[in-house]
Amino acid sequence: MFNLIPKTPKIIPWNKAKLVGQKLPLKLKEIWAIRVWFLF
């Protein structure tokens, strides 16, 4: 018998081989950059 149902391509996850999990905390310099950005 012939298989009439076409095969679907495998779906590759967007985060494959990327670091996942908790990120490093913001540095003081980055916090002040955000504060200054929101003042304007």
Helix content: 25-40%
The SSE order reads: H
Spans of at least 5 consecutive residues whose pLDDT stays below 50 are none
What share of residues are in beta strands?
Answer: under 5%
What is the residue-mean pLDDT, rounded to a whole number?
A: 86
Structural class: mainly alpha
Radius of gyration: 23 Å
- How does the major sheet shape up? none
Q: Given the structure, what is the number of helices?
A: 1
Number of strands: 0
> What's the shape?
elongated
Distance between the termini: 69 Å
Structure description:
It is a single chain. The chain is mainly alpha-helical and 40 residues long. The chain contains one helix and no strands. It has one helix at residues 28-39. The termini are far apart. 0% of the residues are buried. The model has no long low-confidence stretch (mean pLDDT 86).
Name the descriptors.
mainly alpha
Structure described in brief:
This protein has 40 residues and is an all-alpha fold. It is built from one helix and no strands.
Element layout with pairings:
Blueprint: H1 28-39
